[in-house]
């Protein structure tokens, strides 16, 4: 009977090994923890610009040193991965954009150059070294062959990339071109400028159409909303200016946010856009009726340079002077509805936090941490959450 008894004897070494193996098994799921959003990405320099890949979980970032980074992001803990980096620009990278097929990455810089990178290989495939006579601020890929760029002195150029030559070069702004947008038919280009005007250019006829009347402050961004019926421009004065399509000369509406500025706007749906500001807050705003529906996220006390929406509209990424790229869950905005009816406003002036990561306060960032929306909230709930930011600031011209 001795043999069976020996089978059940466990040495101290074996017992310790079993404990270690059990601990390893228990720790494995923790390393694969699924997060609500990807982890923040820390950079060595301030990031100016962000762009999401049109088909994959890939993000491009350009910084003030002229470097471009490509990341694969993931909600699995510890699985954000740098795919490659490039230092081909000699000065600050101002804008990056993927081609529609995701195979090329375009970039413009303070060094006046346009670069085209191969996304998979991370190699420079084309350089237009003196694309403008002044530093380039803005970039738009109109289609697979046509690219528009705008510079610091207000010159708009449109390029045929099959020949690497510009077929339009027009200067009608008195200051920098901050952003460019195109209609779905690719016929009209809209530009926002530091001179306070929006420019309208006819791409098919290759000519300038008109400038809007001058608005207060710099126009920092431009987007087309409401199924192409409205155009929205952000301004350095914290105002959203709204134009009717084919009524570009004068605004049809304006909406003042309780924000230092509106430095970047990104449409999420036909009615809702996100804004970034110098106060470090990313706001979700409904257009007509004009409402600030809540806070998407924040870089506490740090001016935000740019925001971008992912290909599946699940995440918004932001970059700021804290040298962090942050990700925010915006999936709840897709089903959000806002009615014309105004509920009584809140007296504390807090922004509604739209996710677990979004702080709630304008003055006190931590004041609304527990005041969060459900993803599929009703219209009435959305109205209940309107704050001082969206009360009576919309003025008809």
From TrEMBL:
<dbReference type="InterPro" id="IPR036322">
    <property type="entry name" value="WD40_repeat_dom_sf"/>
</dbReference>
<dbReference type="InterPro" id="IPR050505">
    <property type="entry name" value="WDR55/POC1"/>
</dbReference>
<protein>
    <recommendedName>
        <fullName>WD repeat-containing protein 55</fullName>
    </recommendedName>
</protein>
<keyword id="KW-0698">rRNA processing</keyword>
<comment type="similarity">
    <text>Belongs to the WD repeat WDR55 family.</text>
</comment>
<dbReference type="InterPro" id="IPR017422">
    <property type="entry name" value="WDR55"/>
</dbReference>
<feature type="repeat" description="WD">
    <location>
        <begin position="129"/>
        <end position="169"/>
    </location>
</feature>
<dbReference type="GO" id="GO:0005730">
    <property type="term" value="C:nucleolus"/>
</dbReference>
<feature type="compositionally biased region" description="Acidic residues">
    <location>
        <begin position="12"/>
        <end position="26"/>
    </location>
</feature>
<feature type="region of interest" description="Disordered">
    <location>
        <begin position="367"/>
        <end position="397"/>
    </location>
</feature>
<keyword id="KW-0853">WD repeat</keyword>
<feature type="compositionally biased region" description="Basic and acidic residues">
    <location>
        <begin position="1"/>
        <end position="11"/>
    </location>
</feature>
<comment type="function">
    <text>Nucleolar protein that acts as a modulator of rRNA synthesis. Plays a central role during organogenesis.</text>
</comment>
<dbReference type="Pfam" id="PF24796">
    <property type="entry name" value="WDR55"/>
</dbReference>
<keyword id="KW-0539">Nucleus</keyword>
<dbReference type="GO" id="GO:0006364">
    <property type="term" value="P:rRNA processing"/>
</dbReference>
<keyword id="KW-0677">Repeat</keyword>
<feature type="compositionally biased region" description="Acidic residues">
    <location>
        <begin position="381"/>
        <end position="397"/>
    </location>
</feature>
<dbReference type="InterPro" id="IPR015943">
    <property type="entry name" value="WD40/YVTN_repeat-like_dom_sf"/>
</dbReference>
<feature type="region of interest" description="Disordered">
    <location>
        <begin position="1"/>
        <end position="33"/>
    </location>
</feature>
<dbReference type="InterPro" id="IPR001680">
    <property type="entry name" value="WD40_rpt"/>
</dbReference>
């Amino acid at each position: 009977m001795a043999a069976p008894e020996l089978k059940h004897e466990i040495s101290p070494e074996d017992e310790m090994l079993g404990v270690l193996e059990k601990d390893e098994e228990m720790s494995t799921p923790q390393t694969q923890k699924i997060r609500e959003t990807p982890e923040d990405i820390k950079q060595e320099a301030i990031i100016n610009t962000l762009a999401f890949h049109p088909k994959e979980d890939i993000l491009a970032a350009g910084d003030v040193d002229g470097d471009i980074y490509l990341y694969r992001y993931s909600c699995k803990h510890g699985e954000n991965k740098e795919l490659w980096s490039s230092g081909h620009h000699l000065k600050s990278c101002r804008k990056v954009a993927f081609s529609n097929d995701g195979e090329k990455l375009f970039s413009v810089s303070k060094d006046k150059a346009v670069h085209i990178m191969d996304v998979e290989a991370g190699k420079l495939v084309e350089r237009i070294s003196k694309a403008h006579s002044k530093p380039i601020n803005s970039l738009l890929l109109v289609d697979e062959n046509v690219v528009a760029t705008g510079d610091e002195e207000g010159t708009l150029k449109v390029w045929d990339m099959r020949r690497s030559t510009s077929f339009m070069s027009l200067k009608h702004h008195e200051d920098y071109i901050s952003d460019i947008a195109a209609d779905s038919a690719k016929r009209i280009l809209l530009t926002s400028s530091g001179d306070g005007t929006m420019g309208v250019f006819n791409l098919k006829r290759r000519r300038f159409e008109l400038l809007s009347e001058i608005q207060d402050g710099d126009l920092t961004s431009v987007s087309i909303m409401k199924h192409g019926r409205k155009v929205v421009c952000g301004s350095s004065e914290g105002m959203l200016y709204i134009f009717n399509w084919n009524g570009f000369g004068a605004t049809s509406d304006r909406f003042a946010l309780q924000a230092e500025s509106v430095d970047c706007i990104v449409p999420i749906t036909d009615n809702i856009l996100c804004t970034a500001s110098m106060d470090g807050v990313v706001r979700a705003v409904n257009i007509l009726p004009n409402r600030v529906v809540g806070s998407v996220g924040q870089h506490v006390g740090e001016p935000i340079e740019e925001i971008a929406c992912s290909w599946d509209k699940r995440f918004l990424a932001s970059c700021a002077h804290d040298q962090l790229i942050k990700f925010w869950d915006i999936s709840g905005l897709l089903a959000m509805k806002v009615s014309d009816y105004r509920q009584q406003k809140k007296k504390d002036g807090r922004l509604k936090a739209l996710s677990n990561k979004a702080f709630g306060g304008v003055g006190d960032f931590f004041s609304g941490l527990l005041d969060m929306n459900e993803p599929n909230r009703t219209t009435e709930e959305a109205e209940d959450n309107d704050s001082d930011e969206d009360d009576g600031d919309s003025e008809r011209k």
